[in-house]
Amino acid sequence: MRITLAGEREFAACAERLRAAGREFQQDLARGLRKPTKMAVEQIREAILHADMAGFRKPGTQPFTAHIPSKGVKRPIARAVQGEVKVHPDPRALIVIRLSQVPPRVRPLLAYFTGRRKRLRHPVMGNRHVWVGQRVPDVWHIPNVESYRRAVREVLDAVAQKAGGR
Fold first, then answer.
1. Beta bridge partners of 31
2. 46 phi and psi angles, rounded to 5 deg
3. How far apart are alpha carbons 120 and 40 in whole angstroms?
4. Which domain holds residue 86?
5. Taking a C-beta distance cutoff of 8 angstroms, is the pair 49, 74 a contact?
6. How many domains does the chain have?
C-alpha cells in the first residue's frame, strides 16, 4: 500500500537537483524528511490503536453482553506500520505496512484497515449459522495530512535555500 501526496513530482525534481549538488545536501534532505515521516507514522499507529471495531447487532435481537478478551488485532498491525526515507537511487518517503511483521492470522484484516474492503462479517463464536457484521474503520491515511505536507515543503525549501546559498 502506498500513500502518494500531491507534489511528488516536485519532490523528485528537487531530489534530482540535490543529487547533482552533492551528498551533503542529500543527507540534509533525508534527515529533514525523517521527522515529519516519523510523526505521520505515529499518527497512523495511534489511529489504528484507537479505532472503534465494535460490532453492530441486527435490529430486534438481544444484545451480546459477555466479555470477550481482545485477540490482539490492532497492536500487531500498528507495529507493522513503518516509514522510510530514501533519496538514492529513487527519491521517496514511504509509509508502509510490512506484511512480514503482521501475524498470518491477522493478515486477512489488512484489507479492511486499508479501506480496500468495507464490510467485515464473521460467524459468532464459530457458529456458521449465525453471522454478524463488525466495523473496521479505514485508518490508512495520515490524520493531519496538511501539516505533513507543510512540514515536507518546509524541509524542501530549507534544503533548496541552503543549496542556493552555497
1. none
2. -60, -40
3. 27
4. 8-164
5. yes
6. 1
* Residue 1 counted as domain residue: no
Residue 115 inside a domain? The answer is yes
**Grid cell at residue 140:** 490508512
Looking at residue 58, what DSSP letter applies? P
Single pTM value for the model: 0.70
The pLDDT tens digits for 17-74 are 666 666 777 778 788 888 888 988 898 888 888 877 766 666 666 666 666 656 788 8
Note the Cα 119 to chain centre separation in Å.
20
Sheet containing 120-124: order of strands: 55-56, 127-134, 120-124
Give the containing element (helix H, strand E) for 94.
strand 92-97
Asked if residue 152 lies in contact with residue 33, where contact means CB atoms within 8 angstroms, the answer is yes
Q: Which helix (H) or strand (E) holds 111?
A: helix 110-113
